[in-house]
Amino acid sequence: MGMVTQSGCELVVIGLGAMGSAALYQAARRGARVIGIDRHAPPHTLGSTHGETRITRQGIGEGADYVPLVLRAHQIWDELEAATGTRILTRCGALLIARPGDTADRGLRTDFLGRTLQSARTFGIAHDVLGTDDLRHRFPQFAIADDEVGYFEPGGGWVSPEAAITAQLTEAARMGAELRTQTIVTGISQHGAGVVVTLADGATIQADRAILSAGAWVADFLPSAMRPLFQPHRQMLHWFALEAPDLAPTWVNGPVYMWPHGDGQDDFFYGFPSLDGGLTLKVANEQYDALVDPNDFNRQVGADESRRFFDHSLAGRLRGLTPQVVKASTCLYTVTPDSAFVIDDHPDMDRVQLVSPCSGHGFKHSAAIGECAALRALDGTSPIDLSAFALSRQTGG
Ligand SMILES: Cc1cc2nc3c(=O)[nH]c(=O)nc-3n(C[C@H](O)[C@H](O)[C@H](O)COP(=O)(O)OP(=O)(O)OC[C@H]3O[C@@H](n4cnc5c(N)ncnc54)[C@H](O)[C@@H]3O)c2cc1C
């Protein structure tokens, strides 16, 4: 094999999940000759971008460097909604419940409330600061402790990851992008003024540049010394039954929510309004001790795992929620040492960009990250400063 070679392409996008579908769409919009490749058929449930909902908010407590990305992402989704007639972004509001002056070590989310407020103030993001009583009055579905307060952002809410990927890929194809799904990339190399992408059947594609947006599989294409910087972690999503007829409208019409509670790493969860008329709520926590091989891990969620999460975080906080699991699934976070993003050139190939390992908080930025990556590849510059996401931040170099 190896005899089939396709050439004349400006850009190849490897992996068409959140980041890759966005990059492909933006490159196609600008008239580039572009090919997008995925080992599955996105949107699918085997990577990091499935499960109905992703939280979005613009006062980014993980750092002000992220705010320009999410501001632009919301604009792009609004444009895509208008172009495709599909619903992508639902601005139901985003609520952070926390203790003021919380000093617990939560990694990138240490002092999450303080840093969220700081980002919101710096960028003029509309928000309300809610005292304990205001919070209880306005959002009776949450059982708020006496020392907890709230940050509410009316323009926050949730994005449908499946709708976003579908809209981006459909528009990309309409604008001339070539899509190759069920196609595994096995290698990338750079030669002189171009790159060669090798597929599992031995065929090759020559292009001027490539974007590597392979999510949890990104390490397959990195030198071995760098692979430990991108660690796939198994995450779980749980849909628990609600039994609160009187509160059903409140849960249906409510905001998305994030809630750090105790002082430990496990003392955090987030969730969504009820999308099924008050029958269930989707809620989740985060695991940073569940390193897995993305090709071989337990995709089932055990009843004991859901129960432990319910007892530890949800019982006594979400009114009307019962421990009965209606549905559960797993998903992958690709976590860097400091949980920041990496959007930079590949360490060995300056015509290949690494775009994706986004440590569990990347979706809300993905439409803009794709645009920045596409413009870096096509024009050599990004409209948004990406220096905070340099690979050297992770390698210490
Ligand atoms: C449970 C969960 C909850 C989350 N919640 C939020 C949230 O509320 N808000 C938020 O902002 N972010 C959230 N995130 C993070 C966000 O979803 C991710 O950062 C983002 O979806 C990652 O997108 P990606 O494009 O990097 O990866 P993916 O979407 O997984 O895309 C990678 C693609 O590459 C393909 N691929 C891999 N290897 C190859 C190969 N060799 N050849 C061809 N194709 C290949 C895969 O098939 C896949 O389609 C969450 C993540 C998870 C898992």
Q: What would you say this structure looks like, in words?
A:
This protein is of the alpha+beta class and 397 residues long. The chain has two domains: 4-49 and 161-227 and 338-395, FAD/NAD(P)-binding domain, CATH 3.50.50.60; 94-154 and 231-335, D-Amino Acid Oxidase, subunit A, domain 2 (D-Amino Acid Oxidase, Chain A, domain 2, 2-Layer Sandwich), CATH 3.30.9.10. Helix content is 25%, strand content 27%. The chain contains nine helices and 19 strands. The protein has helices at residues 18-29, 67-84, 112-123, 132-138, 161-174, 248-253, 303-314, 366-379, 392-395; strands at 5-14, 34-37, 54-56, 89-90, 94-98, 128-130, 149-153, 157-159, 178-180, 185-191, 194-199, 204-212, 231-242, 256-260, 268-271, 280-284, 321-335, 343-345, 352-355. Strands 1, 2, 9, 10, 11, 12, 18 and 19 form an eight-stranded mixed sheet that branches. A hairpin with a 4-residue loop joins strand 11 (194-199) and strand 12. Helix 1 (18-29) packs across helix 8 (366-379) and helix 2 (67-84) packs across helix 8 (366-379). Bound molecules: flavin-adenine dinucleotide. Residues 14-20, 37-40, 42, 47-49, 54-55, 184-185, 213-217, 220, 235, 237, 284, 331-333, 356, 358, 360-364 line the site of flavin-adenine dinucleotide.
